[in-house]
Each structure stands twice: as structure tokens, then as C-alpha cells.
Specification:
alpha+beta; Helicase, Ruva Protein, domain 3; 53% helix; 3-stranded antiparallel β-sheet; single chain; Tetrahydropterin Synthase, Chain A
């Protein structure tokens, strides 16, 4: 039986925001493997986040971010209570999302928001690029290319620009905040402006 030090538990708690007992349990389950323990906590966080997903959100913040007077973003993030909206954790998350939008220029909030016509056009382009492949291989390639398309264009599917490992998506960050703050949180909408760009429409 592996002994879990209080220092490891503290370190894991700081990194994930999970409770002390949850951190100790995750480290015990993963035999002291720090990364595995984080994954376990994230899976549990996801489970608790899913339970909270149906709850009403009418509080929150609207945050703006201006980059050198050339790029401007505005984002609305909602939570359940004014109490959570005022926490440093929530404010930092909203700020990070506003900054991320400026840097990563997403077109859509989530993959569900991508119009069917846009998806069909993308699929046609991919098909033309790999038309020499057998049908079953072709579909797998198209699926992979669509995933890449979602990662490039959908805010929630984008890799968070401040993640040093370049693995964490905005939706993972959101799930962590839900697990840590104990409330349903959603990114409701955003806008991004770039100096000199043509108006959409």
C-alpha cells in the first residue's frame, strides 16, 4: 500500500481545486501517479459537472478584452449565483476566455452551432482531397479532418492558449470550474472585432 504524503495532496489540491479527501483518494487510486490522479479527478469533475448542467444560470459576468487597440472581444459567461460571479476564480476564468477569443479567433461557440451547410461544404472539400482512398478509410479521414475543423473554429473545442501542455480545451477548463465552484457555468455568447476586417453577412 503506497503512502500518500500531505504535500502531494496539497499540491494536487492547488492544481485541481478539488477537495482534500478527493485528492487523497485520487492519489491512492492512481498509486501516487500525479497525472493519473488529475485525470481521475477530471473524470469525477465531469460527472459532477454533468449533474449540474441542467440548473438555471442567470447570473455571471460580461468581460471585454482589447489587444493593442487592434483586436477587441466581449464574452458573456453565466453562473447560478451572484456569489460565484464575484469570486476571483470565476472572474479569472471569464478574463481568460475573453483573452483566448482575441488570440484564437473562433467562429462558433460550440460544434452544435456550426451550420449544416458549412459542415457539408467542409466534407466536400475533404472528399475531393482524398478521393483516391477506399470508402471506409475515406470516412475515417473525413471524421479526423472534421475534428480538426472543430478544434480550429469552435471556442469550446479550442485548446486553451495559456495551457503549457497544449492539451486542455476551453470545455475542459469550464468543467474544472464547475467542479471547483459547485455551480453550473456556461459560456453564453461572444463577439470578436479586428480592426479593418470586413463586416460579416
Amino acid at each position: 500500500m503506497i503512502t500518500i504524503s500531505a504535500e502531494s495532496v496539497k499540491k494536487l489540491r492547488e492544481k485541481t481545486g478539488a477537495g482534500m479527501m478527493d485528492c487523497k483518494k485520487a492519489l491512492t487510486e492512481s498509486n501516487g501517479d500525479f497525472e493519473k490522479a488529475i485525470d481521475l479527478l477530471r473524470q469525477k469533475g465531469l460527472a459532477s459537472a454533468l449533474k449540474k448542467a441542467g440548473r438555471s444560470v442567470s447570473e455571471g459576468l460580461i468581460e471585454s478584452y482589447i489587444h493593442m487597440g487592434k483586436i477587441g472581444t466581449m464574452v458573456e459567461v453565466n453562473c447560478e449565483t451572484d456569489f460565484v460571479a464575484r469570486t476571483d476564480d470565476f472572474r479569472e476564468f471569464v478574463k481568460d476566455v475573453a483573452m483566448h477569443i482575441a488570440a484564437a479567433s473562433p467562429f462558433y461557440l460550440s460544434r452544435e452551432d456550426v451550420p449544416q451547410a458549412v459542415l457539408e461544404r467542409e466534407k466536400e472539400i475533404y472528399r475531393a482531397q482524398v478521393s483516391d482512398k477506399p470508402p471506409q478509410v475515406l470516412e475515417k479521414i473525413i471524421e479526423g479532418k472534421l475534428e480538426k475543423f472543430y478544434t480550429d473554429t469552435c471556442l469550446l473545442d479550442q485548446i486553451f492558449i495559456k495551457d503549457p501542455d497544449q492539451k486542455k480545451k476551453i470545455k475542459d477548463l469550464l468543467t474544472e470550474k464547475v467542479a471547483k465552484l459547485g455551480e453550473n457555468i456556461i459560456v453564453r455568447r461572444f463577439a470578436r472585432f479586428q480592426l479593418g476586417e470586413a463586416a460579416a453577412g
